[in-house]
Amino acid sequence: MIKVHNTLTGTKEEFIPLDKAGRNVNMYVCGITPYDEVHLGHGRCYVVFDVVRRYLKYRGYNVKYIQNFTDIDDKIIKRSNELKIPHTELSRKFIDDYFTQMRKLNILDADSYPLVTGTVEDIKKFIQKIIDNGYAYIIDGDVYFSVRKFNGYGKLSKRNIEDLKSGARVGVDERKEDPLDFALWKKAKPGEPFWDSPWGKGRPGWHIECSAMSLNEFGFDTFDIHGGGLDLVFPHHENEIAQSEAALGKGFVNYWLHNGFVTINKEKMSKSLGNFFTLREIFEKYDPMTVRYFLVGQQYRSPLDFSDDKLEQAKNAWKRILNAVEKSSELIKILPSGELSENVKKQAETFAKNFTEAMDDDFNTPVALANIHFLVNNLFLFHKNPPAGLNKPDVQTFLSKLLEFCDILGLKIQNDTDIPAAVSLLSEKRHQARKEKNWQLADDLRKEIENLGYTIEDTGTGTKIKKK
Ligand SMILES: [Zn+2]
Ligand SMILES: [Zn+2]
After folding, report:
1. Contact 260, 146 (CB under 8 A)
2. What is the pLDDT of residues 272-289, one digit of tens each?
3. For residue 162, with 0-12 CB atoms within 10 Å meaning exposed, 13-18 middle and 19 or more buried, which class applies?
4. CATH second-level architecture of 3-259?
5. CA 209 to centroid of ligand 2, rounded, Å
6. Model confidence over 380-419: pLDDT tens digits?
7. What is the CA angle 267-369-292, rounded to 5?
8. In angstroms, what is the span from residue 351 Cα to ligand 2's centroid?
């Protein structure tokens, strides 16, 4: 049973997908606003949800993962004016940066990356629906959401509407019926990019975009998981809930997952403090897999503190894993084929059970990593001092578990011939299938390997994998 901490209920709950067959999971994570380079905070968020996605897949779910790009908003307009380039050019540039850095972190691509600029028609329909349902009003080309009309406002961030009201800045826009009301549609100021709408020329507000883009992808219906950084709980996600439930007339999302903040040497990361690191800068100093190892080294909800010391520790721990893979691969070559020992088999099962239990418990990656290191220690012991009767399958069993666990955490192991862990794992499974004379499965696995761009060849001494 997978348990996740749901911000909406404030508790750890059993994860039960909406899908009646219990297989399909719909998941949406707020994407970046591409007006600048991605930084460590982004790296953490997308690594966190990449692990969630990979683990759900490992547990047999079919995950549809959607992540947007907020490619038009105040920051983008401001920056494109400063740089005197079109907003489309600016966002393209930083979307490219997003992909460059995130792929280095071995983050799987989303199933779809909707752009706000490509969804404006749907966003307009969505706003109209909210107006029709009586939750929004139009003033002089702007459309506002009427917060007081929505009963559940504050349920995600646990804020009380009266407290919010006394804290709201009065006088920001005197035309609003209530200072808490927020814009669904913003009237274009002179010189700003705009789209035509029934309410006049303008563009969507930030919050409505995510509601419309997610529901668009999931058939305008309640979906399973919405993720994002803790900083998005209020007002962004609170407003997403209000708009979406006002439009849907029922629940928007079942499980809200939020990852913790990143600090640098225990200080808040900020440009003004000069401790703001882009991923590009960090990768000049550290290998991306070291950074990923560091990021998964902390449970996703806890704050994560970045320092050179901690990165050095991560670097050494990751190196130790790579080393164990290399040493065991050498060992496998010289060991007799023989039988898998009962003891190793049992131990491997225990490691797998412990790994799964840790991950089932709200994705407890530090404990999962500890299990990887148990395997590593065992493999080093085998290498240093092979016990009598140690056979190939003993080492292979631990090694394939190690590769499998690393793959779930997205830690990419490349051995000397540059074979990704996923391919090695498939090859290992194929080897097993052949041993069990399951030719159909072996053949399917070969095709999977080929689809990943590798060829596989069975020789007298074993299997050779080559890049196509
Ligand atoms: Zn969102
Ligand atoms: Zn969002």
Report:
1. no
2. 777 888 999 999 999 999
3. exposed
4. 3-Layer(aba) Sandwich (3.40)
5. 7
6. 999 999 999 999 999 999 999 999 999 999 999 875 456 7
7. 50
8. 37
Neighbours of ion ligand 1 (CB under 5 A): 30, 210
pLDDT at 416: 46
Q: What distance in Å separates the CA atoms of residue 353 and residue 401, rounded to the nearest whole number? A: 11
Domain boundaries, the chain: 3-259, 308-467
Phi then psi dihedrals of residue 187, to 5 deg: -65, 135
**Ligand 1 centre and the CA of 241: distance in Å?**
9
CA of 345 to the centre of ligand 2 (A): 45
Q: How far is the CA of 65 from the centre of ligand 1 (A)?
A: 13
Question: For residue range 363-378, what is the model confidence (pLDDT) as tens digits?
Answer: 999 999 999 999 999 9
Tell which CATH classification among 3.30.565.10, 2.60.40.2550, 3.40.50.360, 1.20.120.640 matches the domain 308-467: 1.20.120.640
The CA 226 to ligand 1 mean position distance, Å, reads 7
Q: Which ligand is nearest to the CA of 214?
A: 1
ipTM of the complex: 0.69
Cα of 155 vs centre of ligand 2, distance in Å, is: 17
pLDDT for 461 equals: 52
